[in-house]
Amino acid sequence: MDFMETLSYPLKDIKKRVIGGLLVFPGMILLLIPAIIAMGYTVKAAGDTVRGKNEMPEFDNWEYFLMKGLGYVLINISYALIICILFVPAVILFIVGGENTALMLAGILLAVVAISTLKI
Question: What is the pTM of this model?
Fold first, then answer.
């Protein structure tokens, strides 16, 4: 089997690809909103547990759960950006420093710092 043919197969009929994407994309968005609300509910339940409440929160304020869930998502994105900002230069230094040991070590050190921020 030709490897390049395998890679180019999805690009052969752009019309079918666009139609398929338009069919899938709304479903992804519609499923994203309930997932964010569920994250907000989880954040509320965790906060109530820390405050000593032993009962699960009621599903009475959907807007509150949506806002808490969005906050949770934004915080996770900001943490991921910090790691990417550290990790991308580490990979570049590691690749570019193929012959230069100092650059390779700098890349490895930066990667270790990026990975250690995951544990904080």
Answer: 0.61
